[in-house]
Amino acid sequence: MEHKHNSSEIAEIRKRIAKFHSCISAGHYHTVGLRVDGTVVATGANDEGQCNVSSWCNIVAISAGYQYTVGLKVDGTVIATGRNDYGQCNVSDWQNIVAISAGDSHTVGLMANGTVVAVGDNSSGQCNVSDWQNIVAISAGNSHTVGLMANGTVVAVGDTRSGKCAISGWRNIGLVSEAKILEWKEEARRREEEARRREEEARRREEEARRREEEQVRKWVAQGLCRYCGGKLGGVFTKKCKACGKPQ
User: Rounded to an integer, what distance in angstroms lies between the CA atom of residue 1 and that of residue 41?
Assistant: First the structure.
């Protein structure tokens, strides 16, 4: 029997996978943006009503397809507007959804239990996702669908031309862990600190060289020698260095 997730469970699951969601999405001829208050804005072609999102609220994720737009609501339901010739907007009965992706003419939803649902054009088998399990991320293409499994492997269905579904050998796919990101940041900080240290050391050496040079010039001048090279001076009215020829 399928487990029904309550609102708090869905919220927690959504929080864990929120990093997969996007606050902007580009369709073929329109662009959609998710505001921080859960409302949505859209611009571009609106011939199929794909930009009619001004009344949307409580949205946590968006995805723009070809002449249609899909939005995931905070309660795990889904809303859609725009072209619906293949039924790609027939998502009103979806529940417990935690991620969405709009393709060319099909829409895919990731459920809280790791299974996947899809509606719309299935002429290439791009909606054949009912047997997928343990999925943590989804993406709908033009005529194919890919899913990321919890073990870091990837599954795909749909049009295989151009090798776009040739992912059976992929391993360790997924977002970089927070620990790895922190490690990279720490390494970058160490490199920056080392660069600063080297710059400071270079400045110190330059300052020390300048100080030594000035001290040497003072000694040469005190000894009546050339301030430039320390050579002996000659001349009666205008003192010139016998070594470098420079006037003093």
Answer: 39
Cα 88 to Cα 107: distance, rounded to the nearest angstrom: 6
**Distance, CA of 9 to CA of 76 (rounded, Å):** 11
The owner of tokens 């000694």 is: 219
Q: Which domains does the chain have, with CATH numbers?
A: 7-175 (2.130.10.30), 179-241 (no CATH)
Question: Quick one: pLDDT band at residue 7, thresholds 50, 70, 90?
Answer: low
Please state the φ and ψ torsions of residue 200, each to the nearest 5 degrees.
Answer: -65, -40
Give the Å distances, CA to CA, from 67 to 54, 78, 146, 210. Answer: 16, 17, 21, 69
Alpha-carbon distance values, 199 to 114, 162, 202 (Å): 52, 51, 5
- CB-CB contact of 120 with 104 (8 Å): no
Confidence of residue 180 (pLDDT cuts 50, 70, 90): confident
Closest residue by Cα to residue 31 from 22, 21, 39, 41: 41
Q: What totals of helices (H) and strands (E) does the chain contain, helices first?
A: 2, 14
- Taking the model in full, what pTM does it have? 0.69
Please list, residue by residue across 121-160, b when 16 or more beta carbons sit within 10 angstroms of its beta carbon and e when fewer do. bbebebbebeebeebbbbbbbbbbbbbbbeeebbbbbbbe
